[in-house]
Design brief:
Arc Repressor Mutant, subunit A; 308 residues; alpha/beta; 12 strands; two-stranded antiparallel sheet; D-Maltodextrin-Binding Protein, domain 2; 11 helices
Length: 308
């Protein structure tokens, strides 16, 4: 049973004669007749009652809805393939560090979904080691990880992203009263200094500050953000993670004299993985453009009080 035979059968059923069906298909009537004979041989019976008027046999009537369903599915598949070639269909499977899931990937994904609603999107977040395992298992095609990466997994970076890691405290915290503080003041006033692992291992300068403060604690990122927002302690945060808090004024960036910290990450893929689909390539370009936008913080202005 071949596709051209099913198409000929459907066309004859629509047109009512072999000759009109042959004309619409751009074929000679003998070619159309030969296709129907071959189809009838494959099915095991006559599909049409041939005479002064052409009509379907009981076998033809029972087979017609299935033939048309098969043609509809093939047309849908061809359309889906066409859309996939231009990035309008397909899937995007990405892993991302938890600290970049909201501030970096979230806005890019929102823009992508608005423009390509028929693309299936799967985003998994976690720590660096978890993302490497997702890549290794083929659960995600690309991942935003800490970079450089010392791993047995062969990874190829697609692009890099650098962001500052800044000291953050509650606006009424003692550290927030000065425009700039020293490292000694950080160690003395943080109470406690919250340690967060933005890299594969702690930066030695933060480790020394933690030892000097004698009151450091190490907690999960979201827990740390909640602690600092409630006025407990201070900590170094990747700017993207707390950009919205800084903009709202619920957290304050504190500059530390002589201390500049950055966190490097990269969008990576397995070195020997297959080609990147058009849909994924489109998302990667959106994400790349997002990383080129500076992480700016614009504090919202308090509302003016109306006079009585």
């Amino acid at each position: 049973m071949q596709l051209d035979q099913i198409i000929a059968f459907d066309r004859i059923a629509r047109e009512g004669t072999f000759s009109r069906a042959a004309h619409t298909l751009g074929l000679g009537q003998p070619a159309v007749s030969a296709r129907i004979l071959a189809l009838e041989d494959a099915i095991g019976g006559s599909l049409f009652v041939r005479g002064r008027t052409l009509r379907l046999t009981a076998l033809g009537e029972s087979f017609l809805p299935y033939a048309r369903r098969a043609l509809d599915v093939l047309r849908e598949g061809a359309e889906a393939s066409r859309l996939a070639q231009v990035g309008e269909r397909g899937s995007v499977r990405i892993g991302v560090l938890g600290s970049l899931a909201g501030g970096l990937v979230g806005p890019a994904l929102a823009e992508f979904v608005r423009s390509r609603p028929r693309v299936e999107c799967h985003v998994r977040s976690g720590d660096h080691e978890f993302l490497l395992q997702l890549l290794l298992d083929g659960i995600v095609d690309v991942a935003v990880t800490v970079w450089p990466c010392a791993s047995a997994v062969e990874l190829t970076p697609i692009f890099h992203f650098r962001e500052p890691v800044v000291l953050v405290a509650h606006p009424r915290h003692p550290l927030a009263r000065s425009k700039q503080v020293t490292r000694d003041e950080v160690a003395r006033l943080a109470r406690p200094l919250i340690r967060l692992r933005w890299w594969q291992s702690h930066d030695p300068r933060i480790s020394r500050l933690a030892e000097q403060s004698e009151t450091s604690v190490e907690v999960a990122m979201e827990t740390a953000r909640r602690l600092v927002a409630s006025g407990v302690g201070a900590g170094f945060f990747a700017r993207t993670y707390i950009a919205e808090d800084l903009a709202r004024g619920t957290l304050t960036e504190v500059r530390v004299r002589g201390l500049t910290l950055v966190r490097d990450s990269a969008l990576v893929r397995r070195t020997h993985s297959g080609p990147i689909s058009p849909a994924l390539a489109s998302f990667i370009e959106l994400l790349r453009r997002r990383t080129l936008q500076p992480v700016t913080v614009t504090k919202s202005k308090p509302a003016r009080k109306r006079s009585a």
